[in-house]
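Troubleshooting: if your tokenizer reports a length mismatch, compare your output against this known-good record of 185 residues.
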Amino acid sequence: MQKNSLFSSPSRCFMMFGKIVAAAGVAVLAVMAATAPADAQAVKRLGQFADWEAFSYAGKTGVVCYATTQPKRSLGAPKGRGAAYLSVTHRPRDKSFGVLSAASGVDLRKDGAAEVDIGGARFEMFTSGDTAWARNDSAVLQAMSKGREMIVSTTPAKGAALSDTYSLVGFSQAFAEIGKACGVK
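Known-good structure output:
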């Protein structure tokens, strides 16, 4: 990893965020900005695994490791939509492992319909703000490790239904990497 990398400090990451997104269109940086809190010491990129990336950081609440990806296709995306991404997070100090979340980039309807479809296997989600969370993380993660793509369907607070399709190519490797970084067996 480069010493003077953009990812070497959260404050540098946040400062350069707008310039890089405009110049390179790299939405993954939006994921980092959204998931790396201000108290993080340094965001460490663990690697790129096909369509997934893995990161870790140490903050006041201990080490956090996450794998993330962006949608390959979106249907029903409204104008002005924020960053959409899927992530799986380990927070060992909180005894929180393999938490799946899908940020939609728009406010979601409270108690609105949300689900994951992986090769015809459907899993219910619940929503809070602009994020949908899996009700049964372990079942979804197991299906993700065997699947090729995943569709997350949500109901925005305003407007029509939203559907994001994510590639699962590289997910298993990224998930293994964050497990190793956070000491998860």
